TrEMBL record:
<dbReference type="InterPro" id="IPR032025">
    <property type="entry name" value="DUF5063"/>
</dbReference>
<dbReference type="Pfam" id="PF16702">
    <property type="entry name" value="DUF5063"/>
</dbReference>
<protein>
    <submittedName>
        <fullName>DUF5063 domain-containing protein</fullName>
    </submittedName>
</protein>
<dbReference type="InterPro" id="IPR038312">
    <property type="entry name" value="DUF5063_sf"/>
</dbReference>
Length: 180
């Protein structure tokens, strides 16, 4: 019973797991969605994931090496190619906050599909570790998730939201032009 006092079972973590599950299901079913539906749902998921991720409790892992990566390279590449296909011409965007920008004379181009898959990978790995129910594994996975939030998927959320915002309104504008 004392395991449920573990930081991995806090209210914030449980709420985050629920959002992660929904997001991962969303990415996994995205290839069957119309582009507009995917973009509009992504527009709503990304800020929610970012918010819930920013509320996660900080922790230090009790052990190292217990949390595994569950998303394979093949799965990542499959979802990336499907999302890239789905987004088509709307997939790429210019990113000015990329650290490589200072060394580049050309614009730095990023991909909504790739960033979405990066976010998916970190969240899917976390909820897969969470499902095992072992507090030490959950603690290590939570620590990794927090570290990756700071350096990877949190930044990815911020980037993708700006790009998706642009696409949502570009699609609306194109639809209005078609109706005129």
């Amino acid at each position: 019973m004392e395991d449920f006092q573990h930081v991995g079972y806090s209210k914030e973590v449980i709420e985050f797991v629920a959002v992660c599950k929904e997001f991962c299901d969303f990415v996994e079913t995205a290839p069957q969605m119309p582009r507009k539906t995917f973009i509009e749902r992504l527009q709503k998921f990304i800020p929610l994931i970012y918010l819930k991720g920013s509320l996660l409790p900080q922790n230090e892992p009790e052990t190292n090496g217990l949390a595994e990566d569950f998303v394979t390279e093949e799965q990542y590449n499959y979802y990336y190619s499907e999302l890239h296909r789905l987004l088509g011409e709307y997939d790429e965007y210019l990113e000015v906050f990329d650290d490589n920008m200072q060394y580049s004379e050309a614009p730095v181009v990023h991909s909504i599909a790739e960033k979405t898959c990066d976010i998916y990978q970190d969240l899917k790995n976390f909820i897969s570790s969470f499902r095992c129910g072992i507090p030490e594994v959950i603690g290590e996975a939570l620590w990794q998730l927090n570290e990756n939030f700071e350096f990877y998927w949190g930044k990815g959320c911020a980037e993708v939201l700006r790009a998706v915002h642009h696409v949502v309104f570009k699609l609306r504008e194109e639809k209005e032009d078609e109706e005129d």
